[in-house]
Batch of 4 targets.
Target 1
Amino acid sequence: MRAQFVLSEIGVGLRRNLTMTFAVIVSVALSLALFGGALLMREQVSTMKDYWYDKVNVSIFLCNKSDAASSAKCSKGAVTAQQKKQIEADLKEMTELVETVHHETADEAYKHYKEQYSDTAIASVVTPDQMQESFRVKLKDPEKYKVIATAFAGRDGVESIQDQRSILETLFNMMRSVNYAAVALMFLMLIIALMLIINTVRVSAFSRRRETGIMRLVGATNFYIQIPFIMEAAFSGLIGGLFACVLLLGGHYFLVDHGLELAQQMPLVNFVGWDVVLAQLPLVLVIGLLMPSIAAFVALRKYLKV
């Protein structure tokens, strides 16, 4: 009988404040969708780091005849066969850091350059002797690039040392900035949702002040009086959480797998899979359920004098 009464009170409250309830559902859905999107963006950055850091190399570019005339680091002339042999030997001795070492000749570098920039005007004027030989070093731990840079920078025959990881950091920093913006917007929407929940509970409690007064007179406990209001807010939050889950699933489906088909248009990007998306949904639902309930409980202590 009590459960039936509580459920009927929830239905009455939702019908009386239908527009505000709808506003609560929409704001909760948007804030939780942004929250889930921020979580997915963080997972995306982590996934891309794991994927790309395992593939990046440290490139040790060697001096050629052109560098000897234009670069202060190559003032002693082009790299000699003995210097190349010594650099390679030293790299291979660093077994704790270095996984593989590949020597790219000037002809190989020229071939790769032509493949990448064959459509540009400058490709026709570049000659093989202008290309630099290099050692492509794959590290066991890409974070220890500075050890290689310190060991070989300034050596005779070495023109420069490039860490490909630094190129990717620009992309990752941009994605982090987008993530921070999403988190900031999420907090703004969350504040709006909490204000709507508090106002909705306040209006609902005011409109039913006579009923709650009678319930107090007949000895109803504070919790028994408060529970319909809390459950109304929880129900609205749960519906908003479900909509947020739909938005996250739909976003992954239409943006990555179908629609824009980013997974096919950007094959070099390792997008997070459905397992990662599904793993975030329970957290979104739990927050969607608890956040309005707690907000309603706090609001009732202030506005519902029981």
Target 2
Amino acid sequence: MISVKSLAESPNLTSIPASYTFSNYDPTLLDQNQPEVKIPIIDFSLLTSGNPDLRAKVVTELGEACENWGFFIVTNHGVPESLMNSAMDGCGGFFDMSEEEKLEFKGKHVLDPIRCGTSFNALVDEVLYWRDFLKVLVHPQFHFPKRPSGFSEIALEYSKRVRRVVRGILGGISECLGLEEDCIFKSLNLESGLQAFVANLYPPCPQPELAMGMPPHSDHGLLTLLIQNGISGLQIQHNGKWVNVNAIPNSFLVNICDQLEIFSNGKYKSVVHRAVVNKSATRMSLAIANGPSLETVVGPASQLVESHPPAYIGMKYKDYLELQQSSNLNGKSMLDRVRRL
């Protein structure tokens, strides 16, 4: 299958193929004039501070962000801006390789260590998405393409740094839930947790009102940390409306995912989000998806079901991930399958 990048670079392209055209299009997709909303900002340096008062304040803010938004921005996280920029540059370098070079990494199964392709799951997608991707499993074992030169080393360091940030955030979330700081880390075996490096490319689209970068969906793991190349296109669902999300320089966009909703017994909801495309600029994003170990059965924490009955059925994370990634993406339809009626 031809990449969207190659398609977008076709001479005289003025319309998109029918296979990329959504018939029941949502006009709010291109509404960039929505009222400005104040997305929660979490100062990571205070979350790891030795000052108990400062830390208690930011833990409270984190709990409110998780409960009211399922989404927040993390600043002062300690990951060098130069490393974040290098990781994005590496992603661009990969997408700039020839179709033949990228073909080497065309995986078939959702748990293939290295997989690049287009759309979401082109084998089952009824309409294709205006997106190319590279997905690499980087923990508990590190895999990575050997090209472009130096990209693997940058990705290894970046993934390690992000894991430290994730551990700090999850420690704060554990406390917000009234649990020990290391409860999520230990309960879900994050020492062997799955971490995926997901690069997304959304080239300019001649008919952005007819296409979709990624459909409304929630992520399967615990937390996703995302950066982008300065071109907006991420939208989250908040209070029943779509909200445009724009990053602060040198920050992470963080969203709660399905396994954290399950573990918190529904107290913290995974956020539904989507990617929109535009006519003039290439948007690129880099998401680091962080989840439990593949063999961990994830259900509501035992401490959280004493006063509230379990709202979800436990399922092995590997099974959950495979089911979600091999189906059509549709909001929180996968999460609905493990809800207790």
Target 3
Amino acid sequence: MPYSTPPKNATLKIEPFQLQVPDEEIEHFKQLLKLSRLAPQTFENNQTDTGKFGVTHKWMTEAKDRWQNQYDWRQREAYFNSFPNFKTSIKDDKTGFTFDIHFAALFSEKTDAVPIVFLHGWPGSFLEFLGVLETFKSKYKSSDLPYHIIVPSLPGYTLSSGPPTDQDFKTDDLARIIDKLMQGLGFGDSGYVAQGGDIGAYTCRCLSHYSSCKAIHLNFSLMERPKNLNQDLTVEEVEQRGLKRARDFGLTGSAYALEHGTRPSTISFTLDSSPIALLAWIGEKFITWTDTTPSLEQILDSITLYWFTHSFPRCIYPYREFHGSSAGAVYIHSDPKYHIKQPLGYSWFPQELAPMPVSWVKTTGNLVWSKRHDAGGHFAAMEKPEVLVEDVESFVKQVWKASGSIASSL
């Protein structure tokens, strides 16, 4: 398969991977889905606006029917497998735990290709970036691709193993595993660029502590208003509307995060017991957190993969760190400990959950590139893959030229 040859200097044992859920698991899922009942109609679920009280009865009815009677997992599986997928084992010296890490990738044949790791969040997965991979494939052949594109499944998410069950595991630990992956792929000396949104953005902040991470691009930076009054904190009119969206989300849309952070065990048992429960909990996020709602097929892809891999109980551990009972209002993007010294880029999308003003983000690191867009939401890679690719390419070309280590062909 094109784009599937890892760098020759990789030190990790890298195995090609094909996703294939056993037939018996698919049949069991179909039986559970058929037997799972929907809630009766109520005043709340008869509203037309999902953002008011949650998913509607109409949407749930149509989604269940599509899932049960038309959705073809094997067909979707074949699509996922049309991209180069890999697995590798990473021994973590700190925890003593060996992680089974999955990643999709487009490897370039160019010796001077720039490595870029794209990091998803919750309730996402590597599937968020399939449109990004498609965009790069349409623009470049493997022989002239200027980048190595790496899209890991974060530990605990879908096809990567979860964190240890006998000790705590936090975002700093998550970043350590990603850095080990990138170094093991042969990018320790040349360095790499990290890109992320949601929990992936938190992970990028933590990656800033690693010398092999040379630059960072974010499309999410939830933070407090900077306290340094000596800096220019001008907020454009369009950004004012973004701040209102952030305030509204805090008041009416963030209860899920408190549940994840304070009672992760309870919500995990709840959502891992019923496909319909998982559909409601995650489906709502794809509808209300976006500017352009992904197709129902894309939403079902993500939820079905979560179901088959028992992802939900294994992947919400970061919420204890930032939304747990003892966490308080913790904003890693505001924390001086995670001030980014590397070149930082920031893409602003108006329907992000909390689209922070560019001037605010500038106080959190060495911001050298930014762009405000007039459309797009929380799942930028799914909603606007071509736009995100264009942003990341623009940022990478600028910062690598500035550092003198970019390929001359760029």
Target 4
Amino acid sequence: METGRYPNSSNPYRPKGQVLRDARMWWNSTRNDGFGVLIALGFLLLLAMILVWDTVRAEQRQRVQAERTDHVITLLHEIIEHTTSAESGQRGYFITTDRRYLAPYETARKAYRTTLDQLKTFTADDPQAISQDLVAQIGKLTETKFGELEESVTLIARGEAEVARTRILTGKGLQTMEQLRAAVTRFENIEREQLLYASERAASAEARIVPGLVLMFLMILAVLALGMWQVRRLIDAEVRAAHADELAEARDRADLLSRELNHRIKNLFAVVLAIVRMSGRGDPDAKPALDRVATRISALLNAHELTQSGGAAAGAHLGKLIETAVAPYRSDAHKCDIAGPELILSDAHALPLGLVLHELATNAVKYGAWSQPGGLVKVQWTIADDQEATVTWEEHCSFTPPDHPADERVGFGTKLAESSARQLQGTIERSYAAHGLVLRLVFPAGQLPEPEAED
């Protein structure tokens, strides 16, 4: 009689219903674990999309407000220009009684109502009551001013210049003009305050996006580690199966789940990269920061692919990880010497170490040994008896590198490298020799791989 066909079914005499119940519980547990990981990844992706979308919306609101403010101020200035031109024409006509001087007046009288209508239409949907009151006040004062001008022009045309002079000297027209300018100035200040508020909101959203995305990616890595742990727990359970064929079947299922999870993780990285790059379209100011975020995400993806290239439990070779980090920049003009013993890193070591190497290679191209032809970068590592690994990054510039003051400002890349060193449970030391940067990263290497036994 055949023994149990599922894990923990070693009793060959159990009822068939009990065997089916055990199999169903085992399958539901495996499926729920995988669904939990995918739900967590989906939730983190949703948070990242919300963060990017909030930033894009803030920038869109800023652009809309800038266009609105510019248009409103232009209309307000046109109203003042129309009123001033009309008043100048009226004064010229009053002094000379030559109707040719009324040309600016006639032009402004025909145009000011159109400008007022445009202002009222453009601000009709403004929710602020004070803005609506100011528009109404500006319209009333403009109508009053043009009414006063038209009245004086009519009196002059009838030959009653003295009556027109008396009314001009009352100062009502001057008072109306001062009130109109005050209302226009107040409206301009309100529009500029709204533009400043929208700009501050956009700047605040842009300041949140980089650390927010980095935090999301770290959380994604934590969920990935949890998923790997669940996969390995499933493999351990299958190892204890009674028959070799059942063990092979269980390993196939675990490997399929691992490949599916890795496939979804890489798709997730690709989606996040696409979101980041799309966020920079149409906004040249935000593009450099988003490009730096994209390159760091690519470095994480490269490190992840190295840890999974040889199977679910293969890990990443330190030498291969270093070669991958420097490969985009390495050439005859930008040389790199890599040397060290065999060392296989776990996922927890490979991912943050890949970020550190990416930052070092990028900075070498921008400011260090690879910023000019003929530079050399030496990367060496050693392993102490207590399983402590020391990685040394040493740059030899073909030129005299600039001095680095002790109070030099710490940039985001340096903070990211220090944060990655803490994830490695190690330390990072940076110094500057006559030939360039020297950086040492010390961290516990953990259990080294044992040599494979010969057949």
